[in-house]
């Protein structure tokens, strides 16, 4: 499930929510309960070898 960032158009509260792609039900702001929210996919960084990026970290096999 993707993590989405939302902003409430009524109270300007910013919040995150995990939702299925197939979920089309309205999202309510946890602060004011308004369903007037705007959604955009959350951004995140992945990839790379953790040990090469941070050689001082202990090596772990996953």
Automatic annotation (TrEMBL):
Putative regulatory protein FmdB zinc ribbon domain span: 1-42
Gene3D superfamilies per UniProt: RNA polymerase ii, chain L (2.20.28.30)
UniProt xrefs under InterPro entries: Regulatory_FmdB_Zinc_ribbon (IPR013429)
Domain of life, source organism: Bacteria
Name of the featured protein: Zinc ribbon domain-containing protein
Biological source species: Dehalogenimonas sp. 4OHTPN
């Amino acid at each position: 499930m993707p993590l989405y960032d939302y902003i409430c158009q009524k109270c300007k509260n910013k919040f995150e929510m995990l939702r299925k792609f197939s979920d089309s039900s309205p999202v309510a702001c946890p602060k004011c309960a308004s369903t007037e929210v705007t959604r955009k996919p959350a951004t995140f960084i992945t990839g790379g070898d953790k040990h090469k990026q941070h050689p001082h970290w202990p090596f772990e096999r996953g």
